[in-house]
């Protein structure tokens, strides 16, 4: 045990003397702090946008109160009045932004056809979407393996190439103790850096101190240990430092870049999904055709879906708001099967990736961190379903005014239903990610130790 601690102290002195490694760790620390800052700033920007929405709604109501008298047709209000479905960010979203940079976190809704509003998003710079957001999860998943490679590519090869390993193994110390001390120092250094950044990020984002803290730290530690295991496997081959560096970088490129890209292409081909714009176009065509259909035909189709309004008076005038909103709703009904298939296809893609992400621990840990932060695809689909349900409550609120020809008063604005949605972490996904990472870590360390046992360390 004393020999082990002596070797650890020697590794610490060697690390302090290696200015390049100290600089690399410092740069990664600064990069991680910037990732924390960026994530917190982006979430803060989203919260500011969401906080401004009630004021926009209030101004919209004030304008309508000026434009329309106290007793007016509810059809006018339904057409001009807008409200919002909101997906507020979880505090953990600052650490792992996930899909909040590509999917809308609020939706502006009116009483008109739903799907035209559901898939409408703000214009986004495609280059920004391609590169993604630089949050703490990005630093942990993509950059920490590079630090581990820089620390471990010459774990034993440097001493062998300098002729030091022969002298070291001539001492009363086993090769396993030497490898263990070198690996333990590097593991402690990297895990300490990851824990420090995670702690700073959690404090900055003010995340609640619940069980997710343990899961986050567990995922981070296992992911780092996986890459240390990969380095151990390459070290067991006992090749040169240059060979080790190229091999480890090739593994990083394979598991972090190539496999996720190829998996994405394969999943897209295996689970084709119609685009949201196709639903929008078809819905618009159905709605536009509603102007040319006989009003009685439109209302009969609508009453088949809502028989509670069948006893309302026949439409004889050229234009009636209840007829207008009826064929708006029929446009949604016409594309309902395609909309369900679209959401189901996205869910199936996600599930297929979850089944195959064992091929790349990078995908597994990224999806697990997103699941912890409630920024993954299932959370967005739940938000979409809540927006659909909210639009249904809006229709249920306005229909009595429209079909009973009741006047809409200024006081009725306050009675309009509000959207409520609170994202929840997908803990089962995170726990599955922990299990997959644990299996991967056990596999690579078993291969590494087996390689060292089957092929004893050659000092030359």
From TrEMBL:
PANTHER family: ABC TRANSPORTER PERMEASE, ABC-2 TYPE TRANSPORT SYSTEM PERMEASE PROTEIN. The keyword Ribonucleoprotein does not apply. This is DUF3526 domain-containing protein. Keywords: Membrane, Transmembrane, Transmembrane helix. The chain crosses the membrane at residues 20-40, 136-157, 188-207, 213-234, 246-267, 433-452. The keyword Nucleus does not apply.
């Amino acid at each position: 045990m004393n020999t082990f601690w002596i070797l650890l102290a020697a590794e610490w002195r060697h690390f302090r003397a290696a200015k390049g490694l100290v600089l690399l760790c410092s740069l990664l620390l600064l990069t991680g702090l910037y990732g924390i800052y960026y994530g917190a700033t982006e979430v803060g920007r989203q919260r500011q946008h969401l906080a401004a929405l009630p004021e926009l709604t209030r101004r919209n109501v004030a304008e309508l109160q000026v434009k329309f008298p106290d007793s007016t047709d509810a059809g006018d209000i339904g057409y001009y009045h807008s409200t919002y479905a909101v997906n507020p960010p979880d505090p953990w979203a600052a650490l792992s932004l996930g899909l909040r940079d590509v999917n809308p976190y609020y939706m502006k809704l009116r009483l008109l056809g739903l799907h035209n509003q559901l898939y409408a998003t703000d214009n986004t710079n495609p280059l920004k979407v391609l590169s993604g957001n630089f949050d703490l999860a990005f630093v942990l998943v993509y950059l920490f393996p590079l630090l581990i490679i820089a620390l471990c590519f010459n774990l034993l090869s440097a001493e062998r190439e300098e002729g030091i390993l022969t002298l070291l193994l001539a001492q009363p110390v086993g090769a396993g103790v030497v490898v263990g001390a070198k690996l333990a120092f590097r593991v402690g250094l990297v895990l300490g850096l990851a824990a420090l950044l995670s702690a700073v990020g959690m404090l900055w984002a003010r995340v609640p101190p619940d069980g997710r803290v343990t899961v986050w730290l567990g995922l981070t530690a296992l992911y780092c240990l996986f890459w240390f295991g990969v380095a151990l496997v390459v070290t067991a081959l006992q090749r040169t430092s240059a060979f080790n560096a190229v091999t480890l970088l090739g593994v990083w490129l394979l598991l972090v870049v190539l496999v996720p890209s190829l998996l994405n292409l394969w999943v897209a081909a295996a689970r084709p999904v119609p685009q949201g714009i196709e639903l929008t176009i078809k819905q618009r065509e159905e709605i536009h055709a509603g102007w040319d259909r006989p009003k009685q035909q439109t209302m009969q189709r609508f009453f088949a879906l809502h028989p509670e309004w069948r006893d309302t008076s026949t439409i004889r005038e050229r234009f009636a708001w209840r007829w207008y909103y009826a064929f708006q709703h029929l446009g949604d009904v016409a594309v309902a099967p395609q909309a369900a298939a679209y959401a189901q296809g996205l869910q199936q893609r996600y599930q297929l990736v979850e089944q195959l992400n064992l091929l790349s621990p990078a995908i597994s840990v990224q999806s697990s961190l997103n699941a912890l932060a409630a920024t993954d695809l299932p959370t967005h689909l739940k938000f979409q379903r809540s927006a659909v349900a909210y639009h249904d409550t809006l229709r249920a609120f306005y229909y009595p005014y429209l079909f009973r020809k009741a006047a809409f008063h200024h006081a009725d604005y306050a009675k309009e239903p509000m959207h409520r949605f609170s994202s929840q972490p997908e803990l089962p996904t995170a726990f599955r990610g922990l299990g997959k990472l644990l299996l991967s870590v056990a596999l690579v360390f078993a291969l590494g130790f087996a390689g060292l046992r089957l092929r004893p360390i050659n000092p030359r």
